[in-house]
Amino acid sequence: MLGRCPNCKTRTLLERTTKDGRATVDLCKACRGVWLDKNDLGTLIDVAVPELGIPGDAEQVRRPCPRCHEALHRFDYPQTGTTIEMCEKCHGVWLDAGEYSQIKSVRETLEAAGKLHNDGPVAGIKGTLISFVNSAIEALRPFG
């Protein structure tokens, strides 16, 4: 069992096995956030970035890692416009409610269109445009 929820900070995360039995995740019953240990995201999402790492421009945040208690780093998951947090030490990932579905949906759509990149964030004007479009789409969604 892990420590407290990085979001609520008062609730202990509860270990749960996914419906398909492929992985064990840690869930906060209060905010519905999910902690995934290293490589669990890749196990759950076939189109996940294979070697996800913290980019150099990631922001360190005050949310503590529930496993090793180090400060998490915030950055956009490649090609999705979804902001996630990751621990530099244990490489676990914190996803707020709805972020898992967003990452999965966007990356599956990109794969179907032949536009999926697995080598990290898209740079330059194309990356800026993707971020802008993703932000616009997110702003139009009433609920995550």
Describe the secondary structure blueprint for this structure.
Blueprint: E1 14-17, E2 24-27, E3 34-36, H1 40-44, E4 59-64, E5 71-76, E6 83-87, E7 93-95, H2 99-112, H3 124-140
Antiparallel strand pairs: 1-2, 2-3, 3-7, 4-5, 5-6, 6-7
Helix fraction bin: 25-40%
Structural class: alpha+beta
Major beta sheet, specifics?
A: 7 strands, antiparallel
How many extended strands?
7
Total of helices? 3
What percent of residues are in strands? 15-25%
Order of helices and strands: EEEHEEEEHH
Low-confidence segments:
none
Q: Which shape, going by the Cα principal axes?
A: globular
Number of domains: 1
**Terminus-to-terminus distance:** 27 Å
Alpha carbon gyration radius: 15 Å
The overall pLDDT average reads 84
Lateral arrangement of strands in the main beta sheet: 1-2-3-7-6-5-4
Give me a quick take on this structure:
By secondary structure, this protein is of the alpha+beta class.
What report would you give on this structure?
With 144 residues, this protein is α+β, with helices and mostly antiparallel strands. It has one domain (14-140). The chain is built from 3 helices and 7 strands. A 7-stranded antiparallel β-sheet has the order 1-2-3-7-6-5-4, with no helix packed on it. Strand 1 and strand 2 form a beta hairpin. The longest helix is centred in the C-terminal third of the chain and has 17 residues, at 124-140. It is globular and about 40 Å long. 28% of the residues are buried. The mean pLDDT is 84.
